[in-house]
Every structure is written in C-alpha cells, then in structure tokens.
## 1
Amino acid sequence: MRYGLVSSGGRGGKAWEDSSGSSISSDSDHAYGSREQRQRQRQRQSVRQNNNINTQSKPHETCATAASAATLAEPRRPKADQQPLPSGAIRLPTRDFPLPASPASFVLSTSSGGGGGGGSAVTVASAAANAKGDRYRESAERAHAKIAPVSSDKIDRARADACRSYALPIQVEFRRTQEALAALALDIPPPASSSAAAPAVVVDAAVAETLRRVQQLHSDFERRLREEAAAEQHKKDEAQRKKDEERRKEEDAVREAAEKVKRDAAEKKQKEEAAEKARRDKAQRSKDDAAEKAKSDAAEKSRLASGVSAEALAWADRYRAMYQQLMGGAGAQVKADRAVKAYCFKQRGLVTRSIGQLKDSVAFVTRVAATVGDVLAEASRLHGAVAHQWMLNLTAKALVKQAEREVAVAHHAAYPLAAAAVQLMRRFPDLGDLLLVRLVKKCPYVVPQYGARQPGQGAEEFLRTIGYKERDDGALESEGIYNERMAGMLALFAAVVQTPPEPGKPSVLPVAMAWTWLARMLNMPPRTISPLLVHVFLSVAGAALAAAYGRHFACAIDVLATEWIPAISSTDAVAVAAKSNLQGFVDAYRQTGVLNECPGRVIKRD
C-alpha cells in the first residue's frame, strides 16, 4: 500500500488515501490518542518504505512532483524600471519561482497513474529530474516526516515546506539557466499566473511547456556554444596556420639563405677551380708550345743539317703516313681474316718468284707483268679491296727487295725491273704510290734526305734510322754494302721515272720527278755517299733528263761540275773514289755532249 497527499479543493478537509482508493479522515477536530499516535507512526514508516520502493522502481514519479512544484511559484513581480513586454515577446524569468499563496492547488503524488494531466507532466519532467532523484528523494523523506495530520494548518505548512524542498533544487538549476540565457539576450514570456484554484492538469501542462522551452533554450544555447567554440577553434586554427605559415616562411628564408651561401660558395669554388684550371692549361699550353717549338726547331735544325728542303720533307712525310695507314688498315684486316690471310700468303711466293726471275727481255718482262697482274686481279675478285691492297703492297715490297739484292751490284738490272713495274702501274695505278712508300721507307735518299744525329742518340741507333741493316752475327753492315744497297734502290727509282709512257697515256711516275730529285740534291751540301748516288742516278736517268730538259740539263751539269763536286770532302777515302768517278762522268759529258749512260737502258727484244 502506497500513500499520497490528495487535495480536496479546500483548506480544511484533508484525508489519507491509499492505493485502493479508500480514505482515512484527518479533519482538524480529530482527537489524538495513543492509538492514533501509533497509527501515525505506522503511516510514516509505511510512507518511507513506499518511497524507497518507488524511487528504486520508478524514480520519475517522485521527480514529477518536484517538477510540478517548480511551476507553483507565485506570479512574477516585474521590476520597477522594467518596461512591459510587447505582445508575443518571450522573456526568461530572472527570479526564483515563488511559492503560491495556497499550496492546496498542488498535487503531491507518488502513484504511477496520476490524475488528469499528471501523467504528461511526469513523462515530460522525468528525464530532467532523473539526475536529481537521490537528492530529491532525501528531501521528500524529510518533508513527509514533518507532515503531521493533527490539523489542517500544520498539514498546509508541511505541504508548503515539502513543495519548497522539492522546488528549491529546480529553482537553483533554473536560475543558472536563466542567467546563461540572459547572457545570450534571449527572452521568454513569464509564466502565466497560477490561480490557487487551478486544476493540476493546467499546472502540469504549463510545466511541460516551460520545460520544453527550457530544453529548446538549452539546445539553442548549446548550439551557440558549439558555434562559438567552433568559431574560436577556427580562429585558433587560423592563427596557428598563420603562425605555421610565418614559421615556414622563416624556415624557407633561412634555408634559402643557407642554400644561397652554399651556392655562392660552390660558384666561388667553381670559379676558382676554373681559374686554376685555366692557369694550368695556359701553363701546359705554354709548355706544349715550348716543347713543340723546341721539337720544330730541332726538326728544322735536323733538316738543315740533313740539307733537305721543306717541300721535300713534306713530300716524304706524306708517303710515310701512307705506310702507317696501310699497316693499320689492310695489313691488320688481312691478319684478322684467316681465309684472306691464307690466300695472300699463298700468292706471296708466286709474286716474289716471278719478280726475282726478271731478265733483260721484253717478252720475259711482259710475261712476268702479266702473271703478277693476274694475281692482283684475282685477289680483288675473290677477296675484295682489302686483299687487293695487301697484294699491291706485297708487289711493291718485292720490287724494292729485288733492287736491294740485284740492282745494287748490277745497275743495268734496274731497267727490266722498272719495265715490269711500269706495266703493272699502267694496269693498277695505285701501285705507283705504294712503290714510292716502300722506297722512301727503305731509302731516304730517294727524297733526297740525309740523316741527322739527334742529341743523345747513339751511333748504332742513328745508323739504323738511316737504313743500316744487321748482319747474321748481329753487327751492322759495313758502309760499303750500305752504300751499294742505297744506290741500287735509287737506280730503280731513276729507271722507273725515266721509262717513257705508252703513246697517248700519261706516265704514273713522270720524268719531272727525276729533275726535281737532281735539283734538290744539288741544293744540298754533299756528303760521303752523295757522289755515288748522283753518279748512279745520272747514269740511269741522265739520257732521259737531257732529252727532256736539254739546255737546262747542261746548265745543271755545269753547276754540278763547278760548285757541287768541289765541295765533296777530299779526306774520306770512300768519298774521294766516288768523287773521282763522278768527275770523269761529268767532264766527258761537258767535252762531248754525250752521257756515258748505263748499258741496258733499251731492253732487248727476242
């Protein structure tokens, strides 16, 4: 059984009502006795037990009365300086809810059903009062303990104290809400004045509306707080962003300054290195120029010492370069190709034997030239230009080697050798340059050019540079043998250039080359080998020179006789013998006008 205070509509009649609806009279004239005191004691204990049970099972029912008590305040008294609100305006109350003049219009109920509009009030207010349940429950217990049904006045006072105890926490909370909402300048209309005789349904509806507005205001307030917090956070974020941006700019400026310093240092270092490199390069160029100048001066000094002209030296260097190119080109390629190498080495014996069998016979010369020519053509046809070039070089080498062996001891043998060479050159013009390459390499007097010993150069090394060969015992050949070999190769050169070309065809090596050689030799100071070389050259090619140049040739012979021969040394035995032979040859020509030419110039016909 649960008990509650029920208003009877007036101030005098009060009754206890249990949960079944039966009432217990409690009029003011009720007599108190020991039985009644025991009954009241039992009622108090019952109320305490019911309140404990109700607050544990349905805490919102007890809080409903507390929420209803918040609306039982007396009408709000406006301040003297406060202007009346216009119609429809809403203002928050700024004072606590006063208690009504008569608390008889409130319902203090702990039942779950409630009467009239109490159910809706309990439903709306339950959520707001749950947090305060424990505190309100203690206040309710104290209030119920003070209510004594001895008289209606005491009951009214106890009821008023209970209402105040229930309403005070709500007033404090609501006052805080008012202050917060007042700070936001939000107004709500004051609550309607509650009549002392207003039914409980109206009061609960007003409470529900007020609580709804309070919740709405709380929601708006929280939204405003969130918006302000978001704005404040945005402001802080913006300030932080600006701060970060400034810090980043400062860091970028510091980094850029450091990079600029580093870049300037690198540029400075690079400029210093470039300047140092330029200085070293300049010093190296100066050194190289000095070395080149020294080399050039040494070459010029050597040239002057050798007596060779600059034009003759350039002509010889051209053929020496051709030899280096030949060795690095066709020679290397043939060695790299086994098939071509085998063919060329097989044909080498045929070419060498054919040239070595040359005789003073037109038919024999023609047959040898044809045989060698067929080999050269076959090499070109079978293995291409590389094999052909290699075989041409082999033919020139064989001709020069035959001149070293045979012409050196019999100068007239140069004519059939030259005739075969000319026939091959008419068929293969490149053979002319290759023959000169081999002659310049083996015999520097074809240029003509004397050797010049360089500073610090040994005697044997110098002799090797001018063409001396080693004997089988490792020693160098004698001067006499050396002179004979040089004279034999020069005789081949003279025989080739004096050979007339075929009618209507230009000569590969014209007789003008013989005139150039003689002019260069006469412009050079004579040495030990010089009279021998001039004598051999004139005896082989002199007739052709006389026929081609006539009076100019005679003038050259006069210069030779009057200026050049007297300059030959008279202390060297080899030079003296060669000088005597040359002097007799020149004197005979000057006296008779006929050269004592070498026999065999005209090849025999079978």
## 2
Amino acid sequence: MNDMYMDDYLGGAESIQAAIILRDYIIEIMKSAGFKLRKWASNCPQMLTGILNDDNDPLIVLNLDDNEIKTLRLCWNTDNDSYQFKLNAEEKTNINNTTKRAVLSSIASIFDPLGLIGPIIIKAKLIMQRLWQLKYCWNDLLPNELQQKWLNYKNSLIQIEKIEIPRCIIGRNHVQSVQINGFADASVHAYGCCVYLKVTENNDVSCIRLIAAKPRVAPLKVISLARLELCAAVLLCHLVEKIVNKLNLNLGKLVRLLPFLDENNVLRVGGRLNKSTHISDEQRNPIVLHPKSFITNLILRYKHQRLLHAGPQALLAAVREKFWPLNGRNLARKIVHEFVVCFRSKPTVFTPIMSDLPESRVEPTRAFQVSGLDYCGPVLIKASLNRKAPKLKAYICVFVCFSTKAVHVERGLCTALYSDNSTTFTGANRQLIELSKFLTSPENIEKIRKFTAELGIQWHFIPPRAPHFEGLWEAAVKSVKYHLVRQLGDVCLTYEEMNTVLVRIEACLNSRPLTPLSLDPTDLRALTPGITAVMFVVGSNGFKGSHSRSFFGGWTVNQFA
C-alpha cells in the first residue's frame, strides 16, 4: 500500500527475477478484487514481456515515444533510468509584452515536487515577488527592467533539458552503510536546503545522490540574515523528517544484522554463532520482521497474550527467540500500550495539587523550637572494643527543625514535636505524660514550679497511614542513610564511634546550601541550616584527620580536631 498513489503503482526489486515475481503477485492481488492493471512501463524490457492480455488491450503496455514517460514536464527516461525536464515549444520562444499572469503561469507549469531544480525556479519566484512589491495587476505589462530579466531567464531555461537526475538513489550491490546528509543556507533574497543520501557498498565504493531540496523566497518583511539562516535550518529539519519516514530507512538497521536469505528465501539475521550446536536454528538466525508489517503486529499481539500481558521487555525477549522485529523496543511498547487491559491496570498517575504548608512550617521560630522526629535503622553496633564483642541493634533518632531545616540528634527544649503515629512514639508520649503528672503533683510542684513554668512540650501525631504528612523528616532520614552507607559500608562501630560519625553527618547535612550558589566570588555566602540554627558548618571548626578506617582499629574514622 505504501507504493500506491491513487490508481497508480510504483515499485521495484533488487533483481529481475524478484521483480517478475512481484509483478505477477500484484496482478493476482488486484485481479482478485476486480482491478485490472494496465499501462505497464519499466526500465527493464524483460518486465514487459509475459504479461497476460486476454482482452487484447492495446494499452496493457505503454508505447513510449523516445522511451520517456511524461508527467507534466517531468520525464522518466527508461533507457538510462533517469529523470529529465522537457519544455513546450512556446516555452522555448521569447515572448514580448509579458504580464504578471504569464509569469505565474510559467512558474506553475514546471513540475518539480522534489525541488531538484529549485535553484532555477527560485529566480522566477524572485521576479514574481518583485511584481507583488510593485503592486502590479495580473494583466499589467512588466516594466522594462523586469521584462529583460524575464526574457533572459526564459532563454536560459532551455538548459534544464540537459539535466539528468538518476532515479535510483541506493546502489544495486550489497549495502554496507547508509547516511543522510543535509545542508541549509540563506541569503538576503532567499533561503533553502537540500538532502543527499550517501550509500557505501561492500567494495567501499560510495554513491551520493540528491534526494530532495526546498527553496524559499525571503519574506517581504526585512529580517536579519541570521534569522533567515535559522529559517533554513528549520526547513531542513522538516524535510529530513519527511524523507526518513518516506524512504523507510530501516535498511541501515538491517545492514548491521548481517542478513542473508535461507533456502526458502526468508530473510534472517546473520552472526557468528552458526557453529553452535546448543542453540536452535531459530535462535541463531531469527527471521527479520518489518516494523510496519501487519504480520509483525499480529506476532507481537499473539505473544503478548500468551505471556499473560507481559511488559515490553519480556515481550520483546520472547519474540526474539524466533523473530527479530526492526525497531523492536518501540513496537513492544506500542503493543502493550494499545491493549486496554494493560492500560487500565497501569494508569497514568498524576501528582495531586498539595495543600498549603501548615503554620508550623512557615512561621519563624527559634531553631528546633518546632521539630520533626523519626527513627531509622536498625544499625549494628559492637557492645565493646573487643574483637569478638557481640553486635547489638541500635536505632538513630533524627530531629529536623521546621524553621531552619537543620538536622540534629541531640537538641534543646522545644515547644512542639511532630512524628508519625507508630507505637514507639505513642508509648514514649504516654511515659512523658506520666512523668509530667509526677512532676506536677502537689508535693513536687512547689519545688520545680519556677523551673518548669516556661517549659512544656506538645507532641503532635500525624494521622495514621498518612506518610505525606511526614515528608520533611523522612527526607532527613534518607539523607542520613545516604552518608552513613557511603561512609561506613559494612564496618561495625561501637556506640561512641557511631555517635561521633552521626555528629559528623549532622555537620554535613547542616552545611547544605538553602539558596542557589552564585558564580560571583564577591557575592555573599550561601545560606545553610547550620548558619541559621547553631552554626554547624563543615570546615569552620577545622575538622581534620583521616576518614578511612584501619583494619585493626576504628580511631581513624572518628578522629577530629
């Protein structure tokens, strides 16, 4: 279907035998639907013999004059398999008293859909643009200056009949590599682009052919040359995209597979595993599938259902046991996405619009006056310095300041404490309440009234199963683990050593900039949680010593000045 245009067919093959098989196959296919193909033409005379003509149709094969097929003024010379341009007799004569209508008619009469003679046609278009600038009517005669330019152009137009453009752009021998090269340029009057195809065969012989070109007249509004060059580049991008889609350049991907035809004329993947006896023939040399073939689509759909709607990776792996579809990754994703069952089971998740931050997160307070709390772990610590000391489980308690985002494991008094609703924290809250009742008993209240008058901690629990309420301290836990894993690895420390390392991690976390860093060395220092809280800045206190751990002792990990 890709080779059909309206009621015409244009196709070919690598060899005469393959072309004859293709011809007969197309005749049978169209005949079964009630369509009879006629007006055959070919660059190979053998293709025109052997065509059945039961109705004695005189137009079953075209009788060509000079072996040329003409479409408007674009001709296909079947002798040398090239395109040529032919002019009418009136185009070859000088016509005086030319009007604007005649100029436009002459430009439109040259059929050049691929832009192969774009540099020639653009000169006529520039004359037409000048007529629009002068605001000439359709039947107005051209001024003397433009009349002379137009006559010179018409006299030189006869030279295009000498141009021969090869129809075949890909060599007939074994192709080694295929390249598409595009060029774009602009001037103050016009801009354009052209695309070439470079084919390298196995004998290292390269063939370069012009595929298409696009000329454009510069707009009447005066713009800079740089902007016109940008317009040419955009025009080139669009042209290359069209060419890649039309030419079906899967040939470049196919060449890398080292394909070959088996005894049944089936195209298979080559390789260097042909001497392996433990791999089946189908796995060594899978059948190559065209990405746009309907059969390829059916095979992938069948495998997808047999695999219980597996994902793209599993689907492609299963298909490649017998077949090798070109552009297989994209095909597998497309098949999985097209199945309604797969699409519904994995819907697109949209991030909901979050509500406003709570007041405790946005109101300025003293550092750690309002804090978040979470545990992480367990981590293993040694009970003593002995080599065979037992290992105990320990947990790290992380506090995060709501106001400054500072992180600390030991802190001062706070007025509000936020955590999740786990049993660990609810039990701790119950013990604090019992302690508070003890301290506020009549016999003790007078002793500590003055000391506790200003103190009081409110413990806030987030709703159960609502992790989106604890993003602040969960992020802090993740950051602590990030440094802990990379610093210690599998090393087991004592309680004191672990506490020292955690203090070091605190300093690192509290030294992360809260504002973007400036490229200007004269700008102010970046704001960090340590600066805003308790001045925990790495380097300000002169941390020194090695951060590696020796084989016999752990002192090198924790030695700081």
## 3
Amino acid sequence: MTRDDTSGLELSRRRLLAGLGTAGVASAGAGLGTSAYFSDREEFTGNQLAAGELNMVVSYEEHYSDWSPDELEGISEEDVTMENPMDTTNFTGILGNDVGPLWVRNENVSTFQNNTEVVDESIPKPLTLDEEDPCASADAANDDPAASIDLDDVKPGDFGELTLDFALCDNPGYVWLSGGLESASENGLTEPEADDPDEEEGVVELLDEVQTRVWYDADCDNVFDQASEPVCADLIIDTSGSMEDAVYADGDPTITKAEAANEIARDIVTTTDDVDGADDGVLGPGPLGSTDNNRFAVNSFADEDTIEQPLTDDEQLVLDGLDAALASTPAGGTNVAEALTLAETSLSDCTVGNEKFAVLFTNAPSPDSTVRQNIRDAATDLKDVAGVTIKVVALDVDPTSTDADFWRDIASTPSDTYFVYQDGGTGTSSPGGDDDVRQEMAAAASAITAEITGGGTTTDGERLLFQGSLRELTEAIGPQPGLPLDPTDEPGRACYDANVRSCIGVGWYLPVDHANEIQTDSATFDIGFYTEQCRHNDGSGMPREENATSDS
C-alpha cells in the first residue's frame, strides 16, 4: 500500500455524522385522501375509495480506510495505491479513475471492500433490501436505527464511502437527497494550526478540504464505475522486407506477416467502431469529430518512418492508412526505435487525460545488441515519460524463444505481447496450421480491442450526481426539499417506480496536501431521503415543514 508520510499532522477527534432517515406513510399533507368525491347510484353498490400509501425503506453499507495494516489482509501491498497508477486498466478507482485517493487492483476490490467495511455493533445495520422484492420487509427496515459515520482522528489521505439503498413501496414517487450541515466548529486553535498559512480565523477549513462525490450506484457495488475515457491508439506497422515472408507457409494461399498485421489491425479498428452499437464509420461513441471519441493513427516503418494517417475518429481514414502501409514497397531495414519515437509524436495531439496505446506489429528483432538497446531506450521513454501503453504483436516469433522474451520486455507488461506463430504442427502454438494461426490472429485482435474499448461494452458508466467539497455538498442538499434524484438521464424529471431497489453512493476523502489548518475542526451533517407522490405532481417539491411525509 502506497502511503504518504503524514507524521506530525495528528488531527484531534473529528466527528462526521450522517443521520440516515426514512420517509414514512404519506399523510394528508402529501395530497392523498384530501379531495376525494364519493358517489353512489342505485345500480352500483358498495363503492369505496381508500387512501393509498407512500412508504420508503432504506438500508446502507459503509466503508472507511485510514491505511491501517488490517486493510491489506489477503492483498499485496502493491495492489492498493494512493497515487493514480499508470496501468489504470488493471486498477479500479473506488471514487472513479480521475480522482484520489484510492485505487485497488481489479481482482482485489471485493476483498478490500470486505476489509474496510464499517461494522458498529451499537448501531444495528438495517435489514438488507432484497434486490427482487425490496419492500418485502418494509416494516422491519423502517424500525432500524439510522446510519452514523463517526470518525475519530481523521488524517490527510483518509477515505470513506457510504452506499444508501432505498425503495418506494406501494406507489411511485419523486425522491430527493436531503439533509444539510447541523454544526461546525474549529474547537480552538492548536499551535501548528494557528501557524499554518492556510488557517483562517473563524473558518472551519475541514468543510472545505474534505472532498465528496455522489453518484447513482446502478449496480450497488460501492464503487463509482466511471465512464471509460476515450483512448488514442497508434497502430505501428512494420513494412520491412522480412514482413513479406509467410507466417503460415503450408497453405494455398499463404499468409504473409504483412497481411496478418493488416488483418489484425483492421479487426481492431472495425470492432472499436461497433462497440457503441452503431456501425456508423465513427470510432464512437459520439458523432464524427466529437472529443468523446476514440482516435487512431497509423505509422509504418522500415528504413524510414511514415505517418500514414494522423489521429482521427474516422474509421475509413484509419483503414485506408492501414492499406497504404500494406501496399508500401518493402524496404530492408527495421528501425523499431525510431518508430516508437515517432509514436510519441503521433500521440501528442491526444486529449490530456485520455489513455494512450501504441500497438507494434513486427517480427523477430535484430540480434544486434546496440539495436536492441536503442529499442529498449525508446520503449522506456514512450512508457515512462509519455505514459503510453505498448502492446506488441510478434508475427512468426516462437513464444518460447529469447526473441519472444525481448518483445515481452518491450511491451508494458508481458501479457501485452501477442504471438502469431506456425510451429509446423508439432508444438502447442499452432499445431493445426492455418486454422490455429488465424485463431491466434483473432485472439490478439480481440484482446487488444477489449482493453482499448473497456471490455467491448458501451462506455456510459454510472452517472455522477454531485462533486465538490463537504461544505458544497451540505449546501446542495440543505435547501428544501433537497437535491433532486432521477432514475433516468432523459430530459425532464422522472418518478421512481414502486418496489424497485436503487442505490446512491456517497464518497469522501481528505487530500494529502492539506494538513495543520484542519486540526481540531469538526463538522456534523445529516444526509437522508425525502419523497413525494408522483401522481398530480410535477416534482418541484413541497416545503418539508408542510409535508408530514418528511422524516430525514
């Protein structure tokens, strides 16, 4: 676990309280049962109108990390980090991949969540809401005590998360996230706090330094599954003379290494176009030219390097660039080092923050030690300085050879190396000849595309509801009736259906670059839900003191 040194920044006792309430049975103030007209006719008997019910049930799960050793039980230290990892595809940012302070290796997220779950025996946890029938135990759930975040001795780098589950029973309704600041105090000044240049008299800096993020947790997994950022990928094609040799020589026709590279690269490009569900010629998910789109470039190299196609989101232009590389006159040299350096130039126009890939299609490396060292140096600069993930597709290279080990070293990780190799039918790589070679080509294209596009799914992610300081959050949910919640991202306000479980994630963290100015500060705030009936209502919300359904 990566830890920033916070010695000397001891914070006195803090208490951040979140009172979690429920909305009970709707009363006359909600507009139910107040304007009913009964009627009776001779031929229709037994008419009856009964007031409906609007009831909300809630549950929660809470996590807190203060970087204590017990959080690493069953996890390697390097699998949890406070700093944004270079390899974001293998790590999950609990509050999203663009903010701190916590990233966990993907396969260890569940274990880490279990290790950091807060269990307070003095506050019985509300009944877990059943996903299929959350209102089944509504009465029992409403009788449970409220949730409480009670934090002692918060320090810079600490992190917490509260997932709030709720469901409306009997009738649909509008829902708000409600609450607000109850109290805040500096509790005097310690000597280090008074001497801190960021200390302002009479201001509770804790409210401004604690950062929060609130989101619609669609899968209720306590993690903000952020939309995948668009990526930039440079397809680097070896056009040296050796690429005209066959990667599969026994068939009719044969498959040359150049043809295999072209086929794999084209597969990556066309699949990236399809990933948003629209085969529209745009490397989606947005319209042509959108800054939200993936973009590809094509470079070819032999004795000299050529940019066949600069970065673009136009699928056809990328495919044309690949075909231009395939049609180029084979040359004798293979200047891989210069090609990797050119990739940095090709990717320089990539939007800041977008992940960058360089996919190198080549064959066996030169045996010359100086040439190999030049390739290593160029790859190191591309990976460590430019932040580019390098993937290598090695054509007609035996995966068990030292040449294969060299390309594994050049790639960002050994698993970023893919081999297409005919072994004469006697080994394990391609014993079936043509069919297995093509399977290896398809497997390479599929694996690379999956990483570039986030697993081959749409990149919508979960919706962010709020982001800002703790002070800004309490100000957002404080005005009655609160911060409006919406089950869809369609225009206009929508109601939550009855008997459907929904989750809201509330995360907070104290950045490591804030210290003595927050010593002895404390804050108490409430957070809960408020709901109103959907029928005869536009969702604008009634003042809470006029509506007896409020119990936040």
## 4
Amino acid sequence: MEADIAVQLHSDAKEAGLRYKAVIGDEDSSAIKHIKEKVNSDVEKYSDIGHIKRSISNKLEEMSKKHKSLTKTVRTAFLTNFTFAFYQNNSKTADEMKTALENLVPHMYGEHEKCGFHKSGSYRHKNLPYGKDLSDEELRSDLEALLKSFKTNSKKLLTTGHSRPNESLNGIAWSKAPKFRNYTLSESFDFRCAAAVCQFNVGKTYVDSVCKTAQFTPQKRTKLFNERQDRKRKYQKDYKNRKEFKKARKSLKMERSKKEIVYGVKEGLTYMTDCSLQNPDTIDTMCIPDDRANTKIDAEDILPVYLDLETTRLGHNAEIIQLAAFVDSSTVFNSYIMPTGSINESATAVTGFTIERKDGMRRMYQHGIPVYTVDKHTGLTSFIEWLSSISDKKKILIAHNGSRFDFPILFEQLESAKLVNNAKTAITGVCDSIHVLKTVIKNRESKKYSLGVLYEETFGETFDGHDALNDAKAIAKIFQNVQVSKTQIAALSVDTSSTFNNTRHNRNLKQAVDNFECSINNKNNKIVSHGMARKICKSRLTYEMLKLAHFRDREQGIRAILSEKVGKVLE
C-alpha cells in the first residue's frame, strides 16, 4: 500500500509538471524501486538520519543480548560516533563518507592512524567506559557487519536533508483524523486532510482565511486565539533551534538516563518480556531501600513554630537545660530543665547557666539568677501538650542550625523519654532556618549565617542572644522581615518520622563505619578512605548493598548508587 501511494504521488506531481530529483526516507519500504520502474528512473534515494539512528539503536540493543561488553554506555558511544561521522561528511564525497565509517570501529578499539585522532601517547576516550579502548574481538566483528550495508551504500548518506517536516505533517494530520477512528470512509476525511495541510503550510490562521472565503464572519476570540497559537508555534520553533535549548535537552536526557539506571540498580527486575515464565526463585527482586526518603509536606495549613535550645555542652550527647518556642507574642513556651549531669565551662561561658547544690538540692541559675526547673520528662511532656493545644494546624518546628544541633538533641531526648508517638502526633516536621534563609536572602557580602550576624544585617542592631526564648523570637522576626512564605518552609522541611530515623542512624553511625571499613578494606589494600566510608554509611548504604549494585550492573551500578542525589537529612 505504501509503495502504491508513493507511485501515485510522484505520478500526480509529474502530471502537474513537477519532477523530483531525489527523495529522503527510511530503508523499510520498496517504494523507491516502484517509483523508478513506473514513474521516474532517474530519481535518487537518500537515507534519513533519524530513521538510521533508530535502526542502529535497535540492532545494538539486540546485539547486547549476545555481547555482555556491549553495555548501554558503549551503545551510546557507538551511536554518537556514527552521528559525528555522518554530519562531518554528509556534504563531501561517497568515498570520504565510506572512509569515515570504515574508521569508526577501529577508533573505538584504539587504532587511530586513519581516523584523525592519532596523538602521541595514549588516547583516552570521552564516551567509553573508563576512557579505555574496547577489546572484545567477537563484538568487533559484529559491529563491522552492522556498518557493512552503510559502507556499501555510503552515497545514500550524502544529504543534509531529513524527514522531520514529514513527521510534523503526519502529527498534524493525526490530530485531525486519529488512527483509532476510521475516517477514511467518511465525507469529512478529505476536509480533515486539507485542514492538516493548511495548518502545516499557513498556521492556525488558515481558519480565518477559510471563514473569509466562505463569507463567514470569524469571531474576534477565534482570530485572537489563532494568532496567539501561531506566535507560540513560531517561538517554539525558534527556541528549539537555540544552542542553550539543545544543551538543556541533552542535560535532561542524561539526568533521566541516570535515574533509570539508579532505579534499575535499586529495585532489581521490575519488567522484562516473559519474565513471569521463568522460575520465580531466579528473578532478582531484592530492593536497596532508601531510608532517607522524606515525606513531602503540604504547605497548606501549616503553622511555623520557632524553636531554640540551650544545652549542657555542644555535642549531640548534650542534655537540654532550656527549651523555648515562639509563634507570636501571645503564644510562647519557655521551660528550664534540670539535667542529670553537669554543665561544662564552655557552655556556661556562652549561656550563663550554672548548677549549684544548696540545702542538699541542685539549683539552676542563669547569669546568677535562680530559675524554676522541671525534670526532663515533665518539660518535654509539657512542650508536646503545648504544641497540641495551640492550634489544629500542622506544626513545623523551625530552628537556626537545627539540622546540625537542635533537632538531633531534641529528638534524642524525646526518644529517651519515650515520647516518640506523642511527638509524631504533635509535630508534622522540622526545618532548618539557615537552609531557608540561604534561598531567600541573596547577594550577601558576608558568608556567615550565624543568628547574630543575620539579625544585625537585617535590623542594624544586636539582641541578647544565647537565651533560648530570645533566639526563637529573633528567628521569627527575621522570617517576618524577609517575608518567608509557607511554601518555602514546607519545601525545605523534613517530616517527623524521617527525623527520628535520622537521629537513630546517627547514633549508630560510628559502629556502621567501622563495620563497613572492615568489610571492604584489608591490611594490604585500602580501597575506601575513612571519610568516604563515613559518607557512604551516612547515606544508609551497606557493603552488601554495594555488592548487589555491582552484581546488577557491573559497569555503572556502584557509580549510580554513590552519585544519586538524596533528600534532606539531619547531620
């Protein structure tokens, strides 16, 4: 049928006085032979690069089942090199095109004498695994066989044209007469095809011309809509030809490709033809869990609660001595908690808190003034109850440098007081104010993000810091001044369950790092440094997970897992 239509088109063109010198198309049809025999024996046939690349890609995919070394990276490199050879020689002679194709495979195998890349010293490939030459001779024979037909017919590749406009016309025609409905027997079919051709040649404004010819009065809105669609079409056409668009499209394609590799490595086999016919025990379905996954928090109906702590020391094993939270001037929480241990000198120098024993009882002082204290469980319970009572909205705790200091300590203390479930009910999530302010306040001269520096920059004055309540009020005042939105807060928040998981993981991080280093390193060969081992363990990966990733994809498995972007976590 396709050959008959092609013959008819060329016959009609010949009767109208138009004689085609050449046609560009795929290699899947015998139409050109019919045209030469029945209409025009002098017509030339050139290959369309888009169809050629698709055909080569499919053949490489099929070959990869036979050759393990023909990985996705190698297939992409081969296709890229073929494309370079085509575009560098499509305006030259057939012999030059043939020579370029003949040197394509040797180039990938390290033979650069004729390909134009001969250099002194070793040559490092940019698109092959680890930059090394290919070495599989069996694969080389099959790649040479794949190119044989193109080398024989190199003259067909000597064109700068393509069939993309035809594909565009087909798309417009499909929108007017979809294939899933049979319009061919309908009286409207000819009109639908004519409308597609008019839209392709003229644009959407063809509707106005039709109305004018038929002596209809086109509606003002219809005319404006058609003009707007044509402007949009022209803009998109110009924009897609820009260098920056092509770079962005390539970057997005690479990003999608990386994600596909990561998902394949982490999830195992999820889809494959006839996989359910195999022995179920042989199907790899073990998942590499993502314990760092964070539940997205909806910005609607959240209530920011500004929080600060004062503690006995600076480490994560510190005890809380003051817990304060601020929503507005009428909604304030402030509690002093008596620690079981002592307050070290450096903490006293910063906060002014001391503990003295009088009349057989421990008493706490702030800058020499006695303060009323409660035990840890009472203080934390009253804080949870206060949060539950102030509003039915979803509470987000906001603390300055909270991800590194306040939240790990607070959630560690909540867990030790057995208030995890109560906290999950009262607290929706947590947010570090530094992360938010870095996105909101830009073009700062100072790179320091301490609360005192930010406050002085914003208001031109200092405040009485290192008191938990004063610090919480200062954060709230800065947020209000720079107009931080709830959407910005929600986007950088971590849900409560993930925060507890992070706290537990960080508690056992040292042991996890030691176990990982013992598994992967030996006395004679240190494969991973201590810093890298810590990073790997911090992202919840284990030695067994890395082994599984390597088993699933020997070339890119470990790289894909280690280069994956992970969500926000507490330090």
